[in-house]
Write a structure and sequence with these properties.
This protein is an alpha/beta fold and about 270 residues long. It has one domain: NAD(P)-binding Rossmann-like Domain (Rossmann fold), CATH 3.40.50.720. Helices cover about 45% and strands about 15% of the residues. The protein has eight helices and nine strands. The protein has a seven-stranded parallel sheet with strand order 3-2-1-4-5-6-9, with helices on both faces. β1, α1 and β2 form a beta-alpha-beta unit. α1 packs parallel to α2 and α4 packs parallel to α5. It starts with 9 loop residues before the first strand and ends in a 20-residue tail after the last helix.
Amino acid sequence: MTTTSKSKGTALVTGASTGIGAIYAERLAKRGYDLILVARNQARLTELANRLATQSGRTVKTLVADLGNKSDLGRIEATLRDDASITVLVNNAGVGAVTPLVATDVGKMDDLIALNVTALTHLTYAAAPAFVSRGNGTIINIASVVGIAPEMLNGVYGASKAYVLAFSQSLQHELSDKGIRVQAVLPGATATDFWEIAGHHHRNLPKEIVMSAEDMVDAALAGLDQGEVVTIPSLADQNEWTSYETARRAMSTHLSRATPAARYKVGESAVA
């Protein structure tokens, strides 16, 4: 298939070879974006790139990289800084953990933090100044509902996704007046190989809580179109998030004062 439609720019998608990342690539190609697909598996990347190029007529490039490796990460950072065609960054690459903290190898948690937090931060720091200099760009960060419900799974995984959420909200606050869109997507349980890799296949979860990856991405892109900064595809009542955010913002004005709260009785004279 060939296309005559003008490209909307290039979308760089990490963790693009399978699952959520591959579906983002497919959907963005259909929306008129050329693609740079980043993942570790060359064979899967090549197969996906060939299929999407044929189906959409868009230009699809691949970059094989392990984002937990500093040298590989640096190559992708350089691409984001130097390729002026890039208008969208989808920070999808990540790893999960479902075992209790005390039963988990801390070395594996180092690897999780390196990918979920450090790599995402580095890629965003590479993309954001470039987007600002061009006056437009979109950063989509894939977080998780465990970012606001850390009791659900492994605590380090939850903390890493809480970081992604807070980082995204701060970025939107800083960059929204510079023509930059930032969206944090918080999926619930999604039918991908994430669960199998983490040691607990999604087929073992109740069917009513597991969303297909296709529906998750379609809902996330609809949220982007609607201007959402935080998109929770499975949350039926958006007012619940609005109330949560309103309460958080209201409390934030009371978090720094010169004296401790009265309930701590600090500074009161001792009674004999």
